[in-house]
Amino acid sequence: MTLAFDHSYARDLPGTFLRVAPDVAPAPRLLVLNRSLADQLGLSLTDAQAADWFSGASLPPGADPIAQAYAGHQFGGFSPQLGDGRAHLLGEIVTPQGRFDIQLKGSGRTPFSRGGDGKAAIGPMLREYLISEFMAAIGVPTTRSLAVVATGEEIWRETRLPGAVLARVAASHLRVGTFQFFAARGDQANVRRLADYAIARHYPDLAQADNPYLALLDAVIARQSRLIAEWMGAGFIHGVMNTDNMAISGETIDYGPCAFMESYAPGTVFSSIDHQGRYAYANQPLVLGWNLARLAETLVPLLDPDQTRAVDLANDRLTGIAGRYHTEWLAAMRRKLGFVGEDDSDGAIANDLLTAMEGADWTLTFRRLADETALRPLFDDFTRMEVWLPRWRVRAGDGAARRIAQANPAVIPRNHKVEEALAAATEGNMTPFHALLAAIQQPFTEAEPFMLPAPTGFGRYVTFCGT
Ligand code: AMP
Ligand code: MG
Fold this sequence. Notes:
- By secondary structure, the chain is of the alpha+beta class.
- The chain has a domain at 5-170.
- It is 43% helix and 14% strand.
- The chain has 18 helices and twelve strands.
- It has helices spanning 8-12, 35-40, 47-53, 122-137, 176-184, 188-202, 212-234, 284-303, 307-319, 321-336, 346-356, 362-367, 372-375, 383-396, 400-407, 415-426, 431-441, 448-451; strands spanning 5-6, 17-19, 29-33, 66-68, 72-74, 77-79, 87-95, 98-105, 144-157, 159-170, 236-237, 259-260.
- The chain has a six-stranded antiparallel sheet with strand order 1-7-8-10-9-3. It has a two-stranded antiparallel sheet with strand order 2-4. Strands 5-6 form a two-stranded antiparallel sheet.
- A hairpin with a 2-residue loop joins strand 5 and strand 6 (77-79).
- Helix 5 packs across helix 8, helix 7 (212-234) packs parallel to helix 10 (321-336) and helix 11 (346-356) runs antiparallel to helix 14.
- The longest helix has 23 residues, at 212-234.
- The two termini are 33 Å apart.
- It binds adenosine monophosphate and magnesium ion (MG).
- Residues 244-245, 254 line the site of magnesium ion.
C-alpha cells in the first residue's frame, strides 16, 4: 500500500522547519506495531513495511521529512532554539477522524540537535509506547504510538544500548514553544501564520469568531485545563512540562521521565533532574497557568491593535485559568467518586478524601471505594476514612460500585512493571512488554499481577531524561 501523505505544515508555514532525512537504520527489527491504530488510520501495512518505514531504513512513498523549529522555557529558563533534534515529521495523513502527523523519534541528528546524538534507546521508546497507549485506553487526550523498531545500531547512554525509533501519531506537533520561537525573534508574520494554521487545523469554528486569536487562546486554555485535570485524576506526572512539551491541540505529548504516582503524596517527583520539584504532581495545575501565560504573550500583538487593551484581554483570560481548571478537576473527581450530578459539597468531599488518603495507593483507593474490606489494607491508618466513607456513601448513592469500576482503572503502568518490561526488552525479550501492554490496554479489567503496587524492596522510583 502507499500512505497518502499530505504536507500542509510545510506548505503553509515556509521558514518554520528544515528539510532533513532520517538516518538509515542498518538492521531494522519491528518490536511492536499498533495494528488497531493502523487500522483506525486506514493503514494496512505489512510488518516488513512497518520495520522499514518506521525506522528510517527506507522512506514511505510520499514522505517529505522535516524537522520543525521551536523554542521553549525549560525549567523556567528560555531556550530560543530547540526544535526537533531527533525527530522527523514524515508527513500528515488525512483520515475520517481528522488529520494526523506521522513522526519518527530517535531517527537521527538534525540541524536542531545541538550536542545530542539524535538517537533513542529501546527502553525510552517502548516506555512512550506503553504510557501513551495507556492514556488513550483511559480516554486522556494523547499522541499515539504506532510502532517501535529496533534499528540494529548501538547507542551510548552511560552504557551501550540498542537503538530504536518510535513512530508516533499526533493531531499535530504545534507546541507553545513553536509560537515562542517566532515571537522571540520578533517575527510577527510567522506567529500570525502559525495561529491561522492552528485555528484551521484544530479549531476551525474559531475562524468565524469576532477575535479569532483571542478565541484560540481561550480554546487552548480550555483543552489544556481539561488535560491537566485528567492527568491529576489519573495520578500522572509528566515530569517535563516545559513549554516546548505543551501541545496546542491539547494532547499529552513528549513522554520522557513521566510516571504514575503509586502512594498518594502531592509533592511526588520522579525525574532525576527536577531538583526543585517544579513539575511535582501538585504543581502541574500551576505550571498549566504559567505555560499558558507564555503562549498568551506570543499572541498579544494579534489580540488588539491597541496593545494596552490586548494585554488586558490576555490577562483577563489568564486570570480565569485557575477557576476553569478547578471546574475540570471537580468534574474529573466527580467521575472518579462515582457521583451523579453536582452538589455543593462535592469539592469538600473530594478534598477531604485527599487528606485522608495520603500515603495510600492512588489508583487502588479509588478503585476500591465501594469495597471496604479491600480498601482497608491499603491504609496504615484508616481513622480519617472511617469518618469520610459514610459521607461518600450517602452522596454516591445507588450504583456507585459500578460507576467507580467504569471510571477508575484497575491496571496502570506500575513503575516496577514498566521497568521489568523495558529491562527484558533491552535484553531482547519482548514477552513481559507484550503482557504488560495487553493488561494496560484493558485497564478497567482486573488483572491481579499488574494491579499490585511495587514491592517495598523496589525503593524510591527515579526516572531519567537521558531518553
Ligand atoms: P525533551 O526534553 O525530550 O522534550 O527534549 C528537549 C529537546 O532536546 C528537544 O528539542 C529534543 O529534540 C532535544 N533532544 C532530546 N534528546 C536528544 C538527542 N538524543 N539528540 C538530539 N536532540 C535531542
Ligand atoms: Mg520535547
